[in-house]
């Protein structure tokens, strides 16, 4: 647990906040009706009344224990991975942008369709945004790995795609905010793609400057498979990684600090 708190502080803080908010609201009896409205549930009326903070507060509220549990398990599953890859600040930007803008998209849809007597709570919109970003990242890294040390397996890409598709279908079930889910997914892609591409450009610059080893490419498809070419490319990448590790071990503390500053 301590390791996760140090490596994934944003994910852990979000999960902790969601659990604390749920417990407190349960104890105060503010999870339903006017109690939930006053606590910060997102509704068309709340936005109309100028309570824009509900776009954020509703992300930490959940309807019941099952809702909370499912979202927290999902948050830990994708959050630990993405926070490792993107870094704390970029991860937080994607998460909160997807949740808040996804809420605005939900508001626009339900208002346009006349569903004014409705409300929404939960981290699902933000989580869909994370999944959208993660899927895009895997596809790009599969094609040409830069940010990851090696290209993700095709099974990993298909697994995330399947999980995303299943959750989109589940979103059409009664009592689930399909608008919020799709809004979060769209918002996540809008912010996640440029965040990832900027990170990719930064890492590529470090690789070109010799500050990082190159990534190991994905194997060719079976129809194009050439073992010799694949082995040669992987050997070259591994040799570059070993050379980088040797340079790092031999570098003085000042040289290591300088490399970090360049990043």
SS-based structural class? mainly alpha
Helix share bin: over 70%
CATH C-level class of the largest domain is Mainly Alpha
Task: Name the CATH superfamily assignment of the largest domain.
Answer: Rhomboid-like
Q: What is the residue-mean pLDDT, rounded to a whole number?
A: 84
How many structural domains can be distinguished in the coordinates? 2
Identify the CATH architecture of the largest domain. Up-down Bundle
Rg over alpha carbons: 22 Å
CATH topology of the largest domain: Rhomboid-like fold
Number of strands: 0
DSSP summary: helix tally: 12
- Write down the secondary-structure element order: HHHHHHHHHHHH
- Measured by DSSP, the beta-strand proportion falls in under 5%
Largest sheet: none
Could you list the spans in which at least 5 consecutive residues all have pLDDT below 50? 222-227
> What best-fitting shape do the alpha-carbon axes yield?
elongated
Query: Distance N terminus to C terminus?
Result: 29 Å
Tell me about this structure.
This protein is an all-alpha fold. It has two domains: 2-208, Rhomboid-like (Rhomboid-like fold); 222-262. It has twelve helices and no strands. It has helices spanning 2-7, 9-28, 33-39, 44-48, 54-57, 65-86, 88-112, 124-143, 154-170, 178-208, 227-250, 253-262. The longest helix is centred in the C-terminal third of the chain and has 31 residues, at 178-208. The radius of gyration is 22 Å and the shape is elongated. The relative contact order is 0.10.
